[in-house]
Design a protein that fits this description.
Chain B: This is Type II secretion system protein GspE N-terminal domain-containing protein. The structure holds two protein chains of two kinds. By secondary structure, chain A is of the alpha+beta class. Chain A has ten helices and five strands. Chain B folds into three domains: about 55 residues; about 55 residues; about 140 residues, Chemotaxis protein chec (3-Layer(aba) Sandwich), CATH 3.40.1550. In chain B, about 35% of the residues are buried. Classes of the chains: A alpha+beta, B alpha+beta.
């Protein structure tokens, strides 16, 4: 009789807890206190455990720290009830709020969308989709002062430039350019390109921004890169051609 | 006179909210809207002593808290950006507070907001007309902006210009605080603030709370106004002569003595900015 292979178990996803000593206060009020720390743990494909601290709203936040399964079990105590009763509802509520905010923004209800995005960001201030959404809301309304605040946040947001958010960071860059925030737009695309080098649309949009800044040579160089990535990219080809015509006009006696 | 130009006052005048609802909403705003210094201490990136040092410096210069904290090496740009975002996201606007309280529906709020924006356009036109009527409109504009910033930075009070200072309003403001600012590009500008009884008292309390006149006893409100004026003049350029004692009464109407005036509002009080004619 042949033995059946063991069934692959689902990757671990739960909450663990530990006690940690933290320093609070300054000067004469400085003291050490014991705190219960909750971490959200997700097993990675390579078997390592990505641990992220839970914020006050029971939402995972900050950079993940990788530990082995053995270290996790040695240092932390499982708290599955916290995951089921606090984390899951918080995450679902958060996603619902951002979905609603996206819907409101797309239907032109900018002010209500702003409230909803802010509500989501009060729960998780590092929420990528909500940050982009809030920034786009401001840019669509031409509120560049507030958009700068969001731009600075996004430029330091872990995971904002991953392929998952490709559509959003492209859209955000386009809106920065349309609002005349050319320095920010170039910075935004440059950061996105460092992390996603093979996106021809990013190259194209960066070229348009450079063109608006009057940097024609740089725009041409970036357009050529976009065409190397996708030779049948009609917009990039037409743009490069128009830059050529522009050059011919410039050099005409 | 058409209200104070603030949204809460506008809602009351429209009968859209009750005074009690407005009080609750303002209290909710006060709980949520935190100052940058508090956020820095809470995040553990600055000590309370460093915050005090920056606040002291801010009273003498026209710069944001974050700029000064970075210049002193207390704060990194990265932390400031994160905290500015946190402050912004958690900032509750009056409309949002009223919606959360259930005092207004979203639809009604949007209608009122449109009406308020129309009123604001009229106010801006009226302010422009009042400033254009002065002999030096650009200098007057810079002065009015400097006052707005000075009141906000030093006393935490929001100030809005409303329009020309009419005789009836001027008559209700017996306290006159003269000052002179020397502004780069504009030169010397003599002006005075005219106030009723409430604003000096309010400023006295505010500036004592802020620590600018921590040892002052009650009854020294004019000192608070002069401290604030010194700060404003200093931020605009070289301050001279703002320490003169206040005159108990002023001319019944600024125009009567060749002065032009601007009516300003801050929550709870109206006051006047009187631009004095150029002297030889």
């Amino acid at each position: 009789m042949s033995s059946t292979p063991p069934e692959a178990s689902a990757p671990l996803k739960s909450v663990f807890t530990t006690e940690a000593a933290t320093t609070v206060g300054f000067g004469t009020t400085k003291r050490k206190v014991e705190q219960t720390v909750y971490v959200f743990v997700e097993e990675q494909p390579d078997g390592m455990m990505a641990c992220r601290a839970l914020n006050g709203n029971f939402v995972p936040s900050g950079k993940p720290r990788l530990v082995s399964r053995e270290e996790l079990l040695r240092r932390f105590t499982p708290a599955p009830n916290v995951y089921l009763e606090r984390v899951l509802p918080a995450l679902r509520g958060l996603e619902r709020a951002v979905d609603e905010a996206d819907r409101l923004r797309e239907s032109g209800q900018g002010f209500t969308a702003e409230f909803e995005y802010k509500n989501a960001l009060r729960i998780d201030e590092n929420h990528v989709r909500a940050s982009f959404g809030l920034g786009l809301t401001y840019l669509e309304r031409g509120d560049t002062d507030k958009a700068v605040l969001v731009f600075r946040k996004i430029s330091r947001l872990e995971g904002a430039f991953t392929p998952e958010f490709k559509h959003l960071f492209n859209e955000f860059g386009i809106q920065l350019r349309k609002n005349g925030m050319l320095i920010q737009a170039v910075g935004h695309y440059a950061k996105a390109l460092r992390l996603t080098r093979t996106d021809e649309h990013l190259h194209y949009n960066l070229a348009r921004t450079l063109y608006d800044k009057g940097k024609l040579r740089a725009a041409r160089r970036i357009l050529k890169k976009a065409l190397l990535l996708r030779p049948d990219f009609p917009e990039a080809r037409a743009f490069l051609k128009s830059l050529g015509r522009h050059d011919a006009k410039e050099s005409a006696p | 006179m058409n209200g104070t130009g603030f949204f809460g006052d506008f809602l009351l005048r429209q009968g859209a909210v009750t005074p009690d609802q407005l009080r609750q909403a303002l209290a909710s705003q006060a709980r949520s809207n935190r100052r940058m210094g508090d956020l820095c201490v809470e995040a553990g990136v600055m000590t309370p002593g460093q915050v005090e040092d920056v606040l002291d410096a801010q009273r003498g210069t026209d710069a944001c808290f974050g700029q000064l904290a970075i210049a002193r090496g207390y704060l990194r740009r990265k932390d400031l950006d994160a905290l500015l975002f946190r402050q912004h996201v958690n900032q509750v606007h009056l409309g949002e507070a009223l919606l959360t309280l259930g005092a207004l529906t979203e639809r009604r709020f949007c209608e009122l907001l449109d009406l308020f924006h129309a009123q604001e356009s009229r106010r801006r036109r009226s302010v422009d007309a009042a400033l254009d009527a002065t002999t030096r409109p650009e200098a007057a504009r810079a002065l009015a902006t400097g006052l707005e910033r000075g009141f906000a930075r030093q006393a935490g009070l929001c100030v809005k210009p409303l329009g020309p200072l009419d005789p009836a309003s001027a008559a209700a403001m017996p306290h006159v605080f003269p000052a002179t600012a020397v502004m780069p590009g504009f030169g010397r500008l003599d002006f005075a603030l005219r106030m009723g009884d409430d604003l000096p008292r309010l400023l006295g309390a505010r500036l004592r709370v802020a620590g600018a006149a921590a040892d002052s006893a009650p009854g020294t409100e004019p000192d608070a106004v002069r401290t604030l004026l010194d700060g404003v003049c200093g931020q605009l350029g070289r301050p001279i002569g703002s320490g003169r004692p206040p005159r108990p009464t002023g001319p019944a109407h600024p125009a009567a003595s060749g002065e032009t005036g601007l009516l300003l509002a801050c929550p709870g009080a109206l006051f006047g900015l009187v631009l004095l004619p150029l002297t030889a």
